[in-house]
Amino acid sequence: MNVVLCQTNIVWEDREANFERISNLLASAEIPAQSLVVLPEMFATGFSMNVGKVAEAAPSQAEAFLQGLAKQYDGLFIGGVVREAEGGDEGGRKGCNQSVAVDPTGQCLARYQKIRTFRNASTNEFAFYQRGTEVVTFDWGGFKICPLICYDLRFPELFRRGAAQGAQLFVVIASWPVARVDHWLTLLRARAIENQAYVVGVNRCGEDPNWDYPGASVVIDPHGKVLVNAREGEAVVSAEVSIEVVDEWRETFPALVDLEVE
User: Fold this and answer.
1) Is the C-alpha dihedral spanning 167, 168, 173, 176 positive or negative?
2) How far apart are alpha carbons 42 and 39 in whole angstroms?
């Protein structure tokens, strides 16, 4: 399967500008049919805590944009959207930070809501976005795929839940800052090695009012080898992944047989 990483410099809180930017980036690349194409976390607005402005009710413009791309390129598209919560929770949180997977028919194959929301003095996501509760998996291109989001990467137990569901490829979309880029790359490799799975990490580049972003979107194989790295700046890069690589390694070194999930 061909995996395409679309690394963008997201325009702050401007959906139309980001739709145009992504469309132009993809148009400049060769994307075979039936590819898996991944966009960053909150690709339409940036990592904004202005929930009243960036959160959308269903059907949302961001999801409609993903559906259009999936049909145009005859592939599976995964990207980060912001949905309005159905009523606030006990903390008054009104937004949902989600990763959505859309197939070429426009069908949503998976909707994952970020379980670990980020606590930070300047961008306290925890105060504005409701936490999800369930890790999800779905099938595409011969793989069982598990989508996760940014800060989730620091919590290996979430990946273990996905592995227990049979995940062979993890997709992590992110707004991960340049100050911790070494953590980003190290943790992505660790999640691939310990789960004997491919890990696709797609991060944004550029800057917003709070952070600078390094890009560094990657595909990592089950042995921890980096197959492609988009490095800095806007880019569309790709790598081939093979389910046989996962199966052979798990058979040769059957560590997951000993997997226990609390």
Assistant:
1) positive
2) 9
**How many CA atoms does the CB half-sphere of 152 hold within 13 Å?**
30
- Active site members: 41, 114, 150
Considering only CA atoms, which of 244, 248, 26 is closest in space to residue 141? 244
Separation of alpha carbons 47 and 82, rounded Å:
10
Beta-carbon count within 10 A of 219 CB: 27
| 214 assigned to some structural domain | yes
How many CA atoms, within 13 angstroms, populate the side-chain half-sphere of residue 31?
26
pLDDT digits (tens, 9 = 90+) for 125-183: 999 999 999 999 999 999 999 999 999 999 999 999 999 999 999 999 999 999 999 99
Q: Is 23 helix (H, G, I), strand (E, B) or coil?
A: helix
> Could you tell me if residue 262 is inside a domain?
no
More confident residue, 129 or 260: 129
Answer yes or no: are the C-beta atoms of 41 and 205 closer than 8 Å: no
Any domain includes 258 = no
pTM for the model: 0.97
Give the total number of structural domains in the chain: 1
User: Does the residue 124 lie in any domain?
Assistant: yes
